[in-house]
Amino acid sequence: MLTIRPSSVFFHLLLLALGAIILPGVQAAPRRKGNTGSATTASQTPQQQAARLPQGVSTATDGSTILDTTATVNGVPLRFKISGPASQFTTLTNVTGAASQPNAAGTMGLNVLLHGDGGQSFFDFPNQAVQGNLMGVVVLAPSQQLLWGQRTGQPSGLSRADGVADAQAVNDLIQQVLPQVVAFDPSNVFFTGVSGGALTLSGFFMPAHLAEYGNSTGVLLMCGALEPQVDVVDADSVFASARVHFQSTQDELALLQPAIPAAVAAYEALAAGAGLSDAEIGRLQTVDNTPNGGHCEFDEQGFVSGIQLIADNFENIMQGGDGVVEGIDAATVLTPVVGNEELVFA
């Protein structure tokens, strides 16, 4: 259970001065109901249920420190968790062992995850363990139903009416708030999207903001992807170097079966437009839907365990590994997108 530290009052005042307010306490595709761990009434929204969970400091699966807090970004409260060595947190947070100064560049990067509709992966925090010199970050969607790209109403499939605003909020959180919380290398920031989070990442964040993260960035898209829904900024520079992997399953949701291949083709075209050869594109952009499972069931057993399997293999998939994932019956999940755009589903 997370605990609230008395020192959080100081942190509240600090971020208030910065325009990012600390608040108390507190998947496109099928919605997965997160386990809030508390009794709620039928009238409460998932957002209200999530707010019942305390924030504070806890310990990650690898023994590193997790800080769970909320900042107001662009007038919207964004709850987030960040996991890393205690020494990387800034002294302003009063995390025990914090030794970094605000806005100081660190030696470790970030892996920022956007959960699927309903928020399950926010609560599970599958990328919490430090991996490949990346600290884990997970952000909770600022919507009633915990949907990325859709702040009001029930899930509406691939439609993400608030994708632009949510992508901007995530970008501003990373660029403006996180440097006050933890020391990290801003040129080594990767992203992970799950289902609805993957739709918002690929449809809105990648085209609009990936250019701000230099030539050492990448995006892992699990069980969901969209073609760019907005203009692509600096496409030639970004997609000449950005690492992108699309991971799906054989029994993917019907509405995603055409959307994912379309996204694969669209991002491949951006890399080709940047002048890359087929071989160069194949090294940067890869795709797999080998697992004989349902939506996000990459281990062919379950939604949560499937996502955790891929998260545990992030470095092996995204940072120069061989792409061999124990639990997936494939020689490697790193199949080049060139010539493999038209995924065949069961």
Automatic annotation (TrEMBL):
InterPro entries: AB_hydrolase_fold. Gene3D superfamilies: alpha/beta hydrolase. Residues 1-28 form the signal peptide. Transmembrane segments: none annotated. It comes from the Eukaryota. SUPFAM superfamilies: alpha/beta-Hydrolases. Keywords: Signal. Residues 30-62 are annotated as: Disordered. Residues 36-51 have a biased composition (Low complexity). This is Cyclin-like f-box protein. It comes from Bombardia bombarda. The lineage of its organism: Eukaryota, Fungi, Dikarya, Ascomycota, Pezizomycotina.
